[in-house]
Write a structure and sequence with these properties.
68% helix; mainly alpha
Length: 287
């Protein structure tokens, strides 16, 4: 059965990406990394996201992450690997995932059959992911699959998240958005991070954001108030449509009923996580 329009995109936005992302805003991650001797918040973020690739340097991470400022990345990589090995970082991240999901969802939910069902559905979808040109997905696909259902679910959402993310970078190049333009236009759409977090997490300065906004205005994609023009909105939709196309295989493999069920169950977990304070209140939006 053909998937309903945007079903895969809705499942990814509502169930997959939020569950994966909970750990990166969790105090549990900071505690686990502090025990390894890594205390800088940016070093924690960069190491935890890149460790699956091994002890890589700044150039590899800047290229693979696309929208982080290179100066920020180079400040911490490869130096962080002198403090902890990638294997230690990955183990610490998984411990943080365990404590984070238990705290946000509660032990009753963690032990529920729905978690095991969602894990099975997400892993089945991931069977159809492909490695070529998918650096972060392929690196994570080499990691062992955890046995506990809630950790297996998180692992599966990671595979699906990085598979879509790797394809999204291809789409960004196709539509001609550089790293900062991609972030600024996403924020203007109302679905991206606020400027505060573009500076805090991605390392950009206000001058960088302002310059990118100027380039977008010159292309007719932003208006004088920083809102997307009709042309800008159309470009963002074309970007997401191309990302959908590049990411369709896992969801076609899972099938319409499976995608709907994963969205239903995973979406419920996402709501629980949001209510429990998984993300900063000012993370998303235009201001």
């Amino acid at each position: 059965m053909t998937l309903p329009e945007r079903a895969a995109r809705s499942c990814w936005h509502g169930a997959i990406n939020p569950l994966h992302s909970t750990v990166y805003f969790s105090p549990d991650l900071g505690k686990e990394f502090a025990a390894l001797g890594i205390t800088d918040r940016n070093a924690v973020n960069l190491a935890s996201r890149s460790a699956a690739m091994g002890a890589v340097g700044a150039g590899t991470v800047t290229a693979t992450f696309y929208n982080y400022r290179h100066d920020l990345v180079a400040r911490h990589l490869p130096a962080v690997w002198e403090t902890a090995t990638p294997a230690q970082v990955l183990a610490a991240r998984l411990r943080a995932v365990d404590s984070t999901l238990r705290r946000l969802l509660g032990d009753e939910t963690i032990a529920s059959p729905e978690v095991a069902e969602a894990a099975g559905l997400a892993m089945r979808a991931a069977e159809a992911c492909t490695r070529h040109a998918r650096t972060l997905y392929s690196a994570h696909a080499d990691l062992p699959v955890p046995e506990e259902p809630h950790l297996k679910l998180w692992h599966a959402t990671t595979l699906l998240r990085e598979h879509r993310g790797d394809g999204h970078l291809v789409a960004l190049l196709t539509v001609g958005l550089d790293p900062v333009e991609a972030l600024v236009s996403h924020t203007a759409s109302g679905h991206g991070m606020t400027p505060k977090y573009l500076k805090y997490i991605r390392g950009w300065e206000q001058a960088d954001l302002d310059a990118a906004a100027g380039r977008l205005r010159e292309r007719g994609l932003l208006d004088s108030e920083g809102e997307l023009t009709p042309e800008g909105a159309a470009l963002r939709e074309a970007l997401e449509t191309e990302t959908d196309r590049l990411d369709e295989a896992p969801y076609e493999h899972l099938g319409a009923a499976g995608v709907a069920r994963l969205a239903e169950i995973g979406g419920g977990f996402t709501v629980q996580a949001f209510v429990a304070g998984a993300f900063p209140a000012d993370l998303m939006g235009k201001a």
